[in-house]
Amino acid sequence: MRIGIDVGGTNTDAVLLDGRQVLASVKTSTTEDVTSGIVAAIDGLQRQRAFDPAAVQAVMIGTTHFINALVEAHRLAPTAAVRLSLPAGASLPPMVDWPQRLVDAVSGRSYLVHGGHEFDGRHIAELDESELRKAADDMGAAGVRSVAITSVFSPVNAEFEARAAEIISAQLPDVAISLSHEIGRIGLLERENATVINAALRELAAHIVDGLAASVSGAGITAPLYLSQNDGTLMDVDFARRYPVATFASGPTNSMRGAAVLSGLDTCAVVDVGGTTSDVGVLRQGFPREATTDVSVAGIRTNFRMPDVLSIGIGGGSRVRGNAGDVTVGPDSVGYELTSKALVFGGDTLTATDIAVATGRVEIGDPSLVAHLDRGLVRAALDRIAADVADVVERMRTSAEPLPVVAVGGGSVLLPDELSGAGTVHRPENYAVANAIGAAIAQIGGEVDRVYAIEPGRREAVVEEAKQEAVDRAVAAGASPASVGIVDFDEVPIPYLPGNATRIRVKAVGDLQLGA
Amino acid sequence: MTMREITIDHLGDIARGAAILGTGGGGDPYIGRLLASSAVRTHGPVRLVPLDEVGDDAVVLPVAMMGAPTVMVEKLPSAEQVGLAARTLATYLGKELTHIACAEAGGVNSLIPVVAAAQLGLPLVDADGMGRAFPELQMVLPTLYGIRATPMSIADEKGNRGVLDTVDNHWAERLARSATIDMGCSAMISNYAMSGAQARESLVPGTLSLCAELGARVRQARAEHADPVARVVERLGGRKLFSGKVVDVARRTVTGFARGEARLSGMDADTGSEMVLKFQNEHLVAERDGITEASVPDLICCLDRESGEAVTTEGLRYGQRVVVIAAPADPRWHTPEGIELAGPRYFGYDIDPVGVSA
């Protein structure tokens, strides 16, 4: 048995699974301290279906806590960014394009040091260790508690980042160190930004992870705890302490992964309809397609692995305006006030939920309060929702092949049974807790993302090498070797570079090796 | 609208407009915009001088970035590196620089000269060498006027610099390309040094103002929920060629350049038709149902259907809804010499150029 928990901004959802069978599922309110909400959720599962805590083999948690901490600029550690690049890069120092509010919130300091690599692995300059030691002195004096180290072309060669970490740790043994090549991709400012964000969250991560572990062990569960990552794979708690940034987009990812399991479709579009938005993503072989462009987080450009998700302002709380001929749905929403503002709850605002109730698709609140609604208006609002969602789904397709659609989330009752251009909408059982199920069935992955100079006739060998390395990484991270397979492969030639430079990305994934 | 100086507030519009004139090439102007903001913040606004106000004896120096955009976003250039390229050439020529200019209008290279001008405290000429973007450095109108690309300077971030003096402009491209690779694939160059009289004769006037205006039109149209593409077409005196969805992109790297084709399936009035865009960094040929509708040297721009933002050839992907527009290039590109330098046959397409009129 395993337990999956998704801690969202509003709800904490939990499921108890035996294999892929859902034994119990609960929805509770997220609490400010997070942990008591989790305790309540586990209690809820226990009440619904009594289980022996010792029989639980693993607990998987997806949490939006870290991204919320960044957005709210809350409890971020005093952080320094060290960039190994001189003589390049001095004109655009670290955090150059950050909102000032966040620079202040991390008490951001930056240090530029000689070092870095060229695209082909040559050194821009030798690493200047004395400059680094001087920087470390200054950080110590300034009370820096977390350091982000970024070296030019570290995704090609990470030796300088590793050496700089040794030097700084020797001098400041108590500071946390984050290395950019473990976090982001080619694109220095974006990778550095992601690394600084990660560094700023390290203290909070340690605190939160301790809290999560305590709430799980408090329930008598001794099984290992995992957190789910942006790409739909799991990390253990030590990894989570070091890479909190890797949890940022785990919410939509868990919904998508859950949708795949519930529907039995591993290549599909998933529409997750919540209270204020509908998020649309695409699964390929059971994993979310990743965004290839930079993703802004709290106004900061970053390039770490995030699912490619398109959102529109249509959810259960969306305001519905106009008449049958000119109806609009959203993008504004009554949000958490749904239970006081929607007509079915005695409020005075027409929402998408009221429309759903008026059709009889779902029973929420008092259906008699929407019985008076004009049938033409109800029909038009549903058509509007269907057309807008169909349009987003259509945008997310990357090939001409047909792509089935799976609808999950509490608000998915708003969608019709057929979407134009997409065909039947699959609405699996347990759709409302798809996110917690996605967390519970998450797997272990390994990835390689590097620029290779491919000599003539060597392409096959290079590709094989990259695939093997991804598989090895997945196994090293805890995947059961027999289950590991390549789920994603991407090869892009880079223009204007000599030597047939090609960027290769490979991802391997396998099932978590459960208890011995 | 005559712009007399470039402040930080203009940079977003200039970058947006330059990406449109970049016809799919020119790279992501983000780093260029950040560098320009930082240089203008440090040194103050850049004075912009209309081409017809540049005196005969002026010493005008175009500056540009040469290399791979993929490298530039990793090994960030510095303002000093840009200034160094210009100063190196001035020293070699034994002349006092009076003006900086743009070699091309497109992405990064419409903003690098802003950095140079700010850093060196020189005015920037409101003009460029192409009126668009092209991939090779001999492809500028000054080549047609016999102005030599060399002596040209090239500088890296380490302080290495070189001056090339070549037998013709094609050799300048070839040797500078090798030096750029040794310098780590992201170098700053300065070439086509010219007098004010030569600049007035050979450059395309008003390009930076045009970039700023195009950028502002797109931004304003969006704010007014109007059609940004229509506003761009109107300003460029061009024509909307096609509205459609990208259904296939095929790319390959040939001698260091990204060549490829994108297929678009028609939407709205173009439903049932297909357009093929052929590109080498920039869009070169647009075919509708097998018939060439536009080609180099004219501008073929691919814009996001809703936002009006330029879509680079690197950024093209399945499912994007785009509008393809074409706009006439500077008429000098349509002379026999201009066609020889940058017509379809130079790029390996055995067709006569197809001109665009509104």
Description:
- The complex is a heterodimer of chains A (516) and B (358).
- Chain A is 32% helix and 26% strand.
- Chain A is built from 13 helices and 24 strands.
- In chain A, the strands form six sheets. In chain A, strands 11, 12, 13, 16, 19, 20 and 21 form a seven-stranded mixed β-sheet that branches.
- In chain A, a hairpin with a 2-residue loop joins strand 14 (295-297) and strand 15.
- In chain A, helix 1 packs across helix 6 and helix 8 packs across helix 12 (434-440).
- The two termini of chain A are 14 Å apart.
- The mean pLDDT of chain A is 88.
- Chain B is of the alpha+beta class.
- Chain B contains eleven helices and 17 strands.
- In chain B, a hairpin with a 7-residue loop joins strand 12 and strand 13.
- The two termini of chain B are 22 Å apart.
- Chain A binds chain B through residues 85, 87-92, 96-97, 116, 118-119, 122, 124-125, 152-153, 186-189, 292-293, 301, 394-400, 493-498, 500, and chain B through 30-31, 34-35, 38-39, 67-71, 73-80, 157-159, 181, 184-185, 247, 251-253, 256-258, 281, 314-315, 317-319, 321.
